[in-house]
């Protein structure tokens, strides 16, 4: 199966390869990768796939919504990451309206539930970024559900050498999905 090129088909759902040397060490690195979507007129949910060394080898556009709303299913978020053997993920989605990068309550609920589900699947969520024409908001930087820190190396919840998840805490889902975020 040939992968799509982002410039040619960036408005489609699907997986997009990126240069495997692209390292995602801090939230600005995510912004540099997804800012091509900042002026889209419809919301899009993007899942970045990372290896144990925080190199992004691709991303999946898993949902395309309307001007201010989209439906996102947890299975869609994790499916391609599991198939492609990602070791961790980062969510990113745009807010096309009014240049507002602040996450909504629905955005934060989605972040919390995907973070918990990732713990069960041993596929941790490192961050959820909301971006717009004027920049981005990193939930990790603001301590919103994902552990607060300035760099992704400080929040990786598993051993990089073994790939094993180090947290054994029991978690409860706050929501059963699919999610409608606005």
Write the layout of secondary structure elements.
Blueprint lengths: L5 H4 L4 E4 L9 H8 L9 E7 L5 E9 L5 E3 L1 H10 L4 E7 L10 H17 L3 E8 L2 E4 L40 E3 L1
Parallel strand pairs: 5-6
Antiparallel strand pairs: 1-3, 2-3, 2-5, 4-8, 6-7
Provide a compact summary of the structure.
The protein has 182 residues and is of the alpha+beta class. The protein has helices at residues 6-9, 27-34, 74-83, 105-121; strands spanning 14-17, 44-50, 56-64, 70-72, 88-94, 125-132, 135-138, 179-181.
**SS-based structural class?**
alpha+beta
Seen as an oligomer or otherwise, the chain set is: single chain
Give the second-level CATH assignment, the architecture: 3-Layer(aba) Sandwich
- Number of helical elements: 4
The biggest beta sheet is recorded as:
6 strands, mixed
* Percent of residues in β-strands: 15-25%
Global outline: globular
Instruction: Say what the CATH topology is.
Output: Cytidine Deaminase, domain 2
Q: For the residues shown, what is the average pLDDT?
A: 79
Q: In what order do the strands lie side by side in the largest sheet? A: 1-3-2-5-6-7
**Termini separation (Å)?**
33 Å
Helix and strand sequence: HEHEEEHEHEEE
Total domains: 1
Number of strands: 8
């Amino acid at each position: 199966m040939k992968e799509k090129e982002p410039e040619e088909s960036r408005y489609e759902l699907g997986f997009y390869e990126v240069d495997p040397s692209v390292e995602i060490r801090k939230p600005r690195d995510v912004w540099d990768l997804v800012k091509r979507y900042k002026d889209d007129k419809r919301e899009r949910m993007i899942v970045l796939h990372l290896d144990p060394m925080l190199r992004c080898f691709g991303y999946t556009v898993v949902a395309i919504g309307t001007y201010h709303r989209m439906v996102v299913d947890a299975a869609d978020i994790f499916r391609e990451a599991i198939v492609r053997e990602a070791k961790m993920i980062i969510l990113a989605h745009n807010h096309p309206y009014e240049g507002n990068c602040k996450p909504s309550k629905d955005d934060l609920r989605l972040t919390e539930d995907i973070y918990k589900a990732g713990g069960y699947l041993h596929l941790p969520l490192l961050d959820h970024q909301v971006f717009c024409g004027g920049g981005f908001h990193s939930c990790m930087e603001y301590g919103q559900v994902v552990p607060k820190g300035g760099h992704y190396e400080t929040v990786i919840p598993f051993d990089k050498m073994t790939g094993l998840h180090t947290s054994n805490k029991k978690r409860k889902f706050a929501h059963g999905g699919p999610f409608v975020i606005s």
